[in-house]
Amino acid sequence: MIVLDTNVLVAGLRSSQGCSRRILQAVLEQTLKVGASPALFLEYEAVLTRPANLAACRLSRSEIIELLDAMAGILVPVDLSFLWRPQLRDPADEMVLETAVNGQAEALVTWNTRDFLPAANKFELRIMRPDDFWTAFHAGLERSKR
User: Fold this and answer.
1) With 0-12 CB in 10 A as exposed, 13-18 as middle and 19+ as buried, what is 115?
2) d(CA 11, CA 89)
């Protein structure tokens, strides 16, 4: 199980190309397990339904809600048993880190690796960019097909 930073979902919806879109498709196809806490899921909704993101994604609010409803049924729920704030410069990133640590995620996938790295090292949490994660994940899928 991994945890996705909100910026990966935004990138995946804004572009039909690229690894963020492939990651999002793998989540929806249930070939990739992703965990989310209630707070992180609410963050997904708040960010994805911003007017600027709706316009960039060329989706309506109801289409985003429909996507989130589908995701809600397949995401691994993560309870936040422990909070370690503050760990990061950006308070909005704290819930992403806490979800990954509490969920014992294999990796936290984000386009913003620099801000997560110092704290992630304390928790021995792997931080990966979507392109690096997709390369490793896709290679694992190919090996399992052989």
Assistant:
1) middle
2) 22
| Cβ proximity of 80 and 100 under 8 Å | no
What secondary structure letter does DSSP report for 34?
Answer: B
- Per-residue pLDDT in tens (0 to 9) along the chain, 146 residues: 999 999 999 999 999 999 999 999 999 999 999 999 999 999 999 999 999 999 999 999 999 999 999 999 999 999 998 767 677 777 788 899 999 999 999 999 999 998 898 888 888 999 999 999 999 998 876 666 65
pTM (two decimals): 0.92
- Return the H-helix or E-strand segment holding 2: strand 2-4
Task: Return the H-helix or E-strand segment holding 11.
Answer: helix 6-14
- Amino acid making up residue 1: M
Tokens of 66: 């429909």
As beta bridge partners, residue 77 has: 36
Q: Which residue ranges form the domains of the chain, and what is each CATH number?
A: 2-145 (3.40.50.1010)
